[in-house]
Specification:
It contains seven helices and four strands; from the N terminus they run βααβααβααβα. The model has no long low-confidence stretch (mean pLDDT 97). The protein starts with a strand and ends in a 6-residue tail after the last helix. The protein binds adenosine-3',5'-cyclic-monophosphate. This is Nucleoside diphosphate kinase.
């Protein structure tokens, strides 16, 4: 079943120069891009995107980080796109959870600066795609 997921290359990924690398991995997996844009993120969008983490101690610094520089926002699609991109990304903690060969496992060191975001469920994907790309809202 074809589905869509919202992918972000966070400010650390953009600054590290891995936009091409991440997009290349998405394409090599067989997934396709339905939307792709370099964006500066308003705090309100970042806060809404990460609303489920609002009570977490790292919420403030997460918002500061996500709004610190441009991000790449993309809608990625294909069969089981949500799980497929999360497999490419690796676990949230780039050292303890992500394995070598994944984006975070290959390029990351710290949980906050973990390079990419991918929606974690069909419900999150619908919400996040609607937030970042209102024209694609389902
Ligand atoms: P992401 O997959 O975008 O979802 C929530 C983000 O919060 C996560 O990636 C990390 O960037 C960040 N995050 C999660 N846990 C922590 C933590 N313990 N400390 C700092 N940042 C975190």
């Amino acid at each position: 079943m074809t589905e869509q997921t919202l992918v972000l290359i966070k400010p650390d990924g953009v600054q590290r120069g891995v936009i091409g690398e991440v997009i290349s991995r998405i394409e090599r997996k067989g997934l396709t891009l339905a939307a792709l844009e370099l964006r500066t993120v308003p705090t309100e969008i970042a806060a809404e995107h990460y609303a489920e983490h609002a009570e977490r101690p790292f919420f403030g610094s997460l918002l500061e980080f996500i709004t610190s520089g441009p991000v790449v926002a993309a809608v990625v699609e294909g069969p089981r796109a949500i799980a497929a991109f999360r497999q490419l990304a690796g676990g949230t903690d780039p050292v303890e959870k992500a394995t070598p060969g994944t984006i975070r496992g290959d390029f990351g060191l710290e949980t906050q600066f973990n390079l990419v975001h991918g929606s974690d469920s069909p419900e999150s994907a619908a919400r996040e795609i609607g937030l970042w790309f209102p024209a694609l809202r389902s």
